[in-house]
Design goal:
heterodimer; A: 210 residues; alpha+beta; elongated; B: YaeB-like fold; five-stranded mixed sheet; 25% helix; 32% strand
Chain lengths: 210, 96
């Protein structure tokens, strides 16, 4: 394997210059194409004409992988309060000892299941059904729409972050919409349909975590 | 230089096995290049390439530099796009 050093020279295809151009290797901060973070100080090939980054040698992949993991560790979202009420109620229905400390575990379990079973297509439907049910209940009781929100903040491991990112890409939802849709799905499984298979799996998880 | 399927397959496997390859960048790290981001290993990609036959391969001139032939392998959901600029192998995209 050829190891590149700062100052090495080579050639690469530069789309900006529309040509095969001379390059030199240097350390640069390079953003990820989805806008989620930056790999800092990685070795790259730079176009001698336009000064843009045009090459990434394979030796930079471990640093890129590490940067990707670091960037994805914090999940922050502000959701309509009813979503967190519903999530906490579902957790309580599974185990009366499960509190807000287990939110991350339940969400991580669902993210993993949805990715593995490739069921993210059903998330939109679950969310719409949930919204419709909320709206009907509100109208029946003549209540105004609530603007109350609550903050969901989680430090997550790289596997959960990757599952979440995969779901975002498949559903084309942003982070907040995805969390809302997954909570709607948990509500449907646990509180509405009382799916015993799901509830038993969540109870096993809760027992391990408590 | 124009490579046929067998030549391209041989060259790209050799590059993956030796680690002598680079990734194309358009001033960023393409998250659809799972080999560049380390989400798949060179060994895994080499296995997919090894399993390909001629029917899984197409090549077309690069849209910006026609002299560069771009190779695409599609096999079991994998999409592997690369080219050669002597003496190197360059990956544009590796994803599922």
């Amino acid at each position: 394997m050829k190891i590149f050093f700062e100052g090495d020279r080579g050639k690469a295809l530069c789309e900006h210059c529309q040509a095969v151009v001379p390059t030199h290797y240097a350390r640069r901060d390079v953003p990820f194409s989805d806008g989620q973070g930056v790999a800092k100080d990685i070795l790259v090939g730079v176009c001698a004409r336009c000064d843009g980054v045009v090459a990434i040698p394979s030796q930079s992949t471990p640093a890129i992988r590490e940067a990707r993991k670091q960037q994805l560790k914090s999940i922050e979202a502000r959701l309509p309060a009813v979503y967190l009420d519903v999530l906490d109620a579902a957790m309580h229905a599974v185990s009366n000892e499960a509190g807000a400390n287990l939110r991350k575990l339940f969400l991580a379990h669902y993210f993993q299941q949805l990715v593995q079973a490739q069921q993210c297509g059903q998330l939109h439907t679950a969310h719409q059904t949930f919204l419709q049910a909320l709206e009907e209940q509100r109208e029946q009781r003549g209540l105004a729409r609530s603007s109350a929100t609550r903050r969901l903040s989680m430090k997550v491991n790289p596997y959960m972050a990757e599952d979440m990112l995969a779901l975002q890409q498949h559903t084309e939802m942003n982070q907040t919409e995805l969390l809302k849709a997954v909570i709607a799905r948990i509500q449907a499984d646990v509180l509405e349909n009382r799916d015993q298979e799901v509830i038993r799996a969540l109870q096993r998880l809760a027992r391990l975590a408590l | 230089m124009k490579f046929d399927f067998r030549e391209a397959q041989r060259a790209v496997i050799a590059a993956l096995e030796s680690g002598d390859y680079q990734h194309v960048s358009h001033r960023d790290i393409d998250v659809k290049n799972l080999l560049a981001t380390g989400e798949v290993s060179a060994t895994e990609v080499a296995e997919v390439v090894r399993s390909c036959r001629g029917i899984h391969h197409v090549s077309t001139p690069h849209h910006a530099v026609a002299a560069v032939e771009v190779h695409v392998l599609k096999r079991e959901g994998w999409y592997i796009k690369f080219f050669f600029i002597e003496p190197g192998t360059w990956f544009i995209s590796v994803h599922q």
